[in-house]
Amino acid sequence: MNEDLDRLRLARTEGVGPILYRRLLRRFGSAAAALEAVPGLARNGGRPTPPTVPSRAEAEREFDLAARARATLIFLGSPAYPPLLALLEDAPPVIAVQGHPTALTGRGIAIVGSRNASANGQRIAETMAEEMAREGLVVVSGLARGIDAAAHAGALRGGRTVACVAGGIDVPYPPEHAGLQARIAAGGAVVSEAPPGTAPLGRLFIRRNRVIAGLALGVVVVEAAQRSGALVTARRGLEAGREVFAVPGSPLDPRCRGANGLIRQGARLVETASDVLADLPCAPGEGLGLLPGFSCPDRLREPPPEPVATPPGDSAEVALARAQLADLLGPSPTSVDELIRRSHFSPAAVLGALLELEVAGRLQTFPGNMVALLAEPGH
């Protein structure tokens, strides 16, 4: 329990996102050691005051709030953590799960689309979801109005479904879907990476979309405008090696332009559940080598390995590297490998300096081992 409390405190520490969380665990080997090191790292990186770290009492309170919502907190690296989701570079350090965590380890298929969906679009999503659930797939969606709600409803008739929510697990959104969320939890699972009580703000929906894609082997887009969260989910699916499918629609309907555009860009055109089942892979295209023991269609069995502490670079060399990196970096993302090649310091020193800058809030990290410099605190 102590390690879980420390992991939760680290995950909720100011400025610590999913990628930095993993780096800190790899660097220090445990959450307790990382928490102890955070103030010094931030100071070395140029932050005048240490980041805010939740107290043990605050972490215990989050556990209590999750329990009151009948949810379980599951940490990255634990056997119960969804193995497909763990393959994401920015996998959530902790998720709250209502219902049955085993629903998160099955073969998942995401169905997403427009909130103001047409009757035809909703019927297609509902029928597809029901038929794929009857074939043993777990249908994943975002509990939103329109296509999401239709997919969940169809999947509930055929088998299991998983809802990924943007706000706290105890804050149903939209409010009229509170009953649907309860039904999903009764037979499947509801997932959130936000602390209980968190209001579902706009930026959280973008983060939620990567969780939808991360829990699935493929993403089906049914009716999506050219600028929509469904297309974000599809893009995150592509980045993670998931298959992307799209249902074609009328070129006269703006709700179909995003899905039609995906087809032009190479997404698989599908009209029925059978079309999806024919091309759904058994594992992510980029993750086959990371899934020992996996055989289609069994669920993934191996949890991600526990972090092992990595030796730090020499402190004097790290300080020199930090000064040079401030010149090499800019607001546009740059590859860490490129920074190592262009600097005259050891990889350990460069990585150590980047870690200090990130903890100080001066560096932003992106999937693909890319980083960009932010303005110094106070500027």
UniProtKB/TrEMBL annotation:
Gene3D superfamilies: 3.40.50.450, Winged helix-like DNA-binding domain superfamily/Winged helix DNA-binding domain. It comes from the Bacteria. GO terms for biological process: DNA-mediated transformation. Residues 310-369 form the DprA winged helix domain. Residues 73-280 form the Smf/DprA SLOG domain. Coiled coil: none annotated. InterPro entries: DprA (IPR003488), DprA_WH (IPR041614), DrpA_SLOG (IPR057666), WH-like_DNA-bd_sf (IPR036388). Belongs to the DprA/Smf family. This is DNA-protecting protein DprA.
